[in-house]
Design goal:
Radius of gyration: 15 Å
CATH superfamily: Nucleoside Triphosphate Pyrophosphohydrolase
Distance between the termini: 34 Å
Strand content: 35-45%
Shape: globular
Order of helices and strands: EEEHEEEEEHH
CATH topology: Nucleoside Triphosphate Pyrophosphohydrolase
Helix content: 10-25%
Structural class: alpha+beta
CATH architecture: Alpha-Beta Complex
Largest sheet: 6 strands, mixed
Number of strands: 8
Length: 157
């Protein structure tokens, strides 16, 4: 069974149309990657957990701030399958969050590989509000479909 993640895509009005909040993964694997490396704030969940509640929890874990909305405000955008097989289910909500000082949960890995040394990195090293056009460039290609779904919902509420 593939791993499953749940995420929350916040959307707010911007000067050139809607903006969405995306995060850049922390750690050495993504340090020099930008285009195609960003993600919806998300995290894995286990069978039996409520994915919508996980999306809210993971938003706070990845950004260090509580989501500005509750479960009742979430609208499901559906699921996408990423290249590695993980299935990501995402909800969107209108809302705003200050991302100038994120405080992401840390993770520890052996780095450099096979060195015997362990280093701690933030799950997310930055977050930004991006136009839909910018987000399509920066977002993990499998998740870009979620922007199409969001745009369709915003055009026909």
């Amino acid at each position: 069974m593939p791993k499953q993640s749940a995420g929350l895509l916040l959307c707010r009005p911007g000067s050139d149309g809607p903006e969405v909040l995306l995060v850049h993964p922390g750690g050495p694997f993504f340090a020099r990657k930008d285009e195609g490396a960003w993600s919806v704030p998300k995290g894995e969940y286990e069978p039996g957990e409520d994915p919508a509640e996980v999306a809210l929890r993971e938003f706070e874990e990845e950004l260090g701030v509580p989501p500005p909305v509750g479960r009742e405000a979430l609208v499901e955008l559906g699921s996408v399958r990423q290249k590695g097989g993980k299935v990501v289910t995402v909800w969107w909500a209108a809302g705003n969050a200050d991302v100038s000082e994120i405080r992401s949960m840390p993770f520890t890995i052996e780095w450099p590989p096979r060195s015997g040394r362990f280093q701690t990195f933030p799950e997310v090293d930055r977050a930004e509000w991006l136009s839909l056009a910018e987000a399509r460039i920066k977002l993990n290609p499998a998740q870009a479909e979620l922007l199409d779904r969001l745009e369709a919902l915003l055009a026909h509420p």
